[in-house]
Each structure stands twice: as structure tokens, then as C-alpha cells.
Amino acid sequence: MLTPPEDDFPRWYQEVVAKAELAENGPVRGTMVIRPYGYAIWELVQADIDRRIKELGVQNAYFPLLVPEHYLRREAEHVEGFSPELAVVTHAGGRELEEPAVIRPTSETIINASFARWIHSYRDLPLLVNQWANVVRWELRPRLFLRTTEFLWQEGHTAHASEQAARSFALEVLEQVYVSFMRELLAIPVLAGQKTAGERFAGATATWTCEAMMGDGKALQMGTSHELGQNFSRAFGITYLDQSGSERYAWQTSWGVSTRLMGALVMAHGDRSGLRLPPKVAPIQVAVVAVREAPGVAEAVDSLVRSLKGRGIRAVADLSLETSFGRRVVNWEIKGVPVRLDLGPRDIAAGQVIMVRRDTGEKMPVAITELPNRVEIALGQIGDQMRSMAAARMRDRTETTSSLDDAIEAASTGFASFEAGLLGADEAGSGTGRGEAKLNAAGVTVRLLQQPDGALPEPGDKLEDLIAIAARAY
RNA sequence: CGGGGAGUGGCGCAGCUUGGCAGCGCGCCUGCUUUGGGAGCAGGAGGCCGCGGGUUCAAAUCCCGCCUCCCCGACCA
Predict the structure, then answer these.
(1) Would you say the C-beta of A273 is within 7 Å of strand B?
(2) Which helix (H) or strand (E) holds A464?
(3) Domain assignments of chain A as residue spans, ordered by start
(4) pLDDT tens across A238-284, in order?
(5) Is the ipTM of this complex over 0.90?
(6) Predicted TM-score of the model (pTM)
(7) Amino acid A16 CA to nucleotide B24 C1' distance, rounded Å
(8) Does at least one atom of strand B sit less than 7 Å from the CB of A258?
(9) Which CATH number is associated with domain A397-471?
């Protein structure tokens, strides 16, 4: 039996991750074993994001895991931001290394060292590169998928000839790749906006983010896209000659999403019965279950699976009659399989199956002759239904407030939305306004800034013209 | 790093106070009966009781030291 999510959400989360066979803890603190079923979901996620990234003209490449320590020191804020969580290789080959090698916490430094060699002319720009990799950040408090010491991600790195070009590319990734992927494939409605100075990536001039509300009303940052300005190009000497022959520093971006998306999937859609997967990222979209032993049942199940597969639907047969029907059903539910088709002797006699939708629990008899079609339709509806359930939750649990105290109160159950002017101007040195500091002290963070109509902030916008969304966050 | 808790078959735990054959539930294996929402019976396999030392005729249990893990707070994708 699962702990109900409303009783103890963190515990429920851990149980779902374990029982759905997504992942388990590795032997070194904070590491994670991603199990085959979990990895199959990740592969579907990866494939779609990879396709979208390539549509923007980005090419994949691969850079080393180990980074010379002095690379990290080249960009002041970057080192400061990352040094507390670095894992450093000091010994190898039985000897102490002359220069320690850092296991990449992110690859800005090593990639930009290459960029500096590759870029000479405005004709080399824009340079658009992505890599799928693992990175290591020695986290103080790990949680499977949400914050692990080693995680898998995609990190894009680009160089452009102008600030404007870099900005529009960063936003294109945010909207065309991340937001649309999350809405369409993960069925998670996300808010897109800009981070405050205090929440900005170490070394960035602007950080853009997608944030979603989880089942307990807390926020999760699901992806980010950064404008790096010329911080790294100056640190690594990424220069080019423009049309007029003058030397210029490139303008850059970096952006990423990680296996954290898996955690989002669990927390945004899961329910009392376990995981619920949107059909597009479900490794198994349909389980065809033989209810009990009877003549013709196994054959009917197999032929049904074949016809579903023939339509490109990911279907499996459940013929494990040595396990009771009830147990098998519970198992498919925990694993979040969107559609189940129950097939027993009664159904064979009636020329039907019982179709059960995981999103609503709804059961309905469907004639075998209508089958591949009805399943296809249901799979489409399930994605839409899950998206609107998540959207309704975010709508119901977002409160518009007029003071910071009310915002803190609202953040105990969901999101608070208020005029960003309340955050106060950045105080010299701190990078954080007085109002924002007050929120932070109460365990609430500003998740993003938007225009009042939900659009992304423009370069000239003042804090007073924007809306802040604040919440407790993972 | 601050505050709590725990280390005992694969997983979850009891046993420790008051030393005396290492147990229970789940899972696993075999057989039979079952199977339309977490099956039943019978038989069976599986242990460096976190590590090191000490006390004792005898230590999972008492004493000393060490290690690790988990949960709650400050950081992140």
C-alpha cells in the first residue's frame, strides 16, 4: 500500500519512485541507479528534446568529464557559485596529480576553451552546440531525480555576434524547446519567466526559467536558459573579427534540462495509486491483461498486442497468470501505464475488452472490432486530460496577493503572485532586494518575473511593471 | 554544518531495559488448490546482528572508540 500523497508527500514520492521501479539510491551518497523502466522514460524524453534542439540548428558534440581546475577559476562568479559542490580528482595512476581535475559540475569552462579555438570570424557565428552528459555536484541533501550528486542532462552552449542574437536564441530554446516539450509531451503546464538577480545562474547576465507546480503546491524549476553576456568570452578569449575587421567578444548562452524532469513527472501527475504517465513518454502505453486462464484468452491477448503495435502503439501482453489479477492490475497502476485492456473469457464471448484509463480510472467495454482506433483516441485524450488537471491545480492554488506577508501565507499551499515592486531594489553588493530577502528568510523564493499578461519581461522593463511568482520550492 | 532517528536474512522490523539456541511480516524457491481488483495451504532456502576493542563461563544485548545511512532546515537542474 502506498502512503497517500496528502498524508506525507515526500514519503509518497519515494515510494512511487521505488515501486514503479524508476530508480534507487546508489552506493555512494547522493548517487542514483536509474532502473530500466525509469531509463526508458528518460530515453523518450531525450529523443523528443534532442529533435527539438536540432530543429534550431544545434549540433551535438561531446566534451570531457574532467576539467583542469584552473579553468573553473577563470570566471569569478562561476567559481564562487560552484566551488562548494565540486568533486575533485587529486590522485590518479597511483600518484598525486600536478593539477587536480574537477569532475564537471557543468561544462561552460571546458566548452568555451574549445570555442575560443574554433571561433575566429563573424562567419563562424552563431556556433550552436549541445551535449548529453552526466555532471556531478556534491549536493548536501540529495533526493532521487530532484537533486542527485550525479545527474544526466543536456547542456547547450552557443556563441553569437550580438547581445540581441544571443538573447533571442536563449528565448527560442526556452519557448520552442522547453516550454512546448513540457506542455506537449509531459502534459505539465509551466510558467516561463526571468529569474531575479539573486536567483541567477553563477556567471550569467540573465536567467530564464520554466517552473511548474507539483502535487503539493510547491514549485519545481524544470529547465533554464541563460544569457551569459560576454562573461565567459572575456574569460576564455572568445573573439572574432566582424565585417569591419575589428575584434569583438562573442555573446553567449547556455541552457539545460536534466533527469529532474523525471521527478517532475512523478510529482505533477502521480496520485494515490502511483505514477501516471502522459502517453507520449510512457514506455508502455497499453497493457493488455489476460484476466484468467481460459481457452482462447492468450491468443486473443497476443493478437490484440500485435494489432496495437502495428499502429505504432507501445503495447505489452500480460499473460502472467501465476500472479493474481488484482496484483497485476495494481502493478500497472503504480507504473502509470495510461491504458489497460482487460481480456477474459466473458469478454471473448462478448467480442469486447474492458478498457481502463489510468488518468480517470474510468472503465468501459469496447468492441474488439473498434479496437486500435478507440485506444488511439483514448491515448490522445489522456494527455489532454492530464494537462488540464495539472493546469486546474495551478490555477486553483495560485493566489494574487498585495503584500509580502500574504504572499508568504499563500506559499504554504501554492503560488503567490504579486507586483514585483514589493521585492525592493537590489541593494548594493547583495544582489537581492529587501523584500526578496524577507521572502527567502521565510523559506519562500521568487520563482520568476513576468509581465502582467504572462509574457516574458523585456529588456527595458522596471521591477514595478512586472509580476513576481513566489513559492516554496524543491 | 545545526537538529532528530536508525544500523539485525533481499525489503520492513522485533529482540537490547533484566546477557543464555537469532525471531516476525513481506518477498523468494517447490508443490497443490486458486485467479473478473493486492489469493490460500503445506514444505523450503537465506544471517560477519555496521566495524574495532573491552567486560564475562557466555554479548545482537553491557562498556569504550569509530564508521555509515535516513529524516527535518540553509544550496541547486
Answers:
(1) yes
(2) none
(3) 9-269, 283-381, 397-471
(4) 999 999 999 999 999 999 999 999 999 999 999 999 999 999 999 99
(5) no
(6) 0.96
(7) 26
(8) yes
(9) 3.30.110
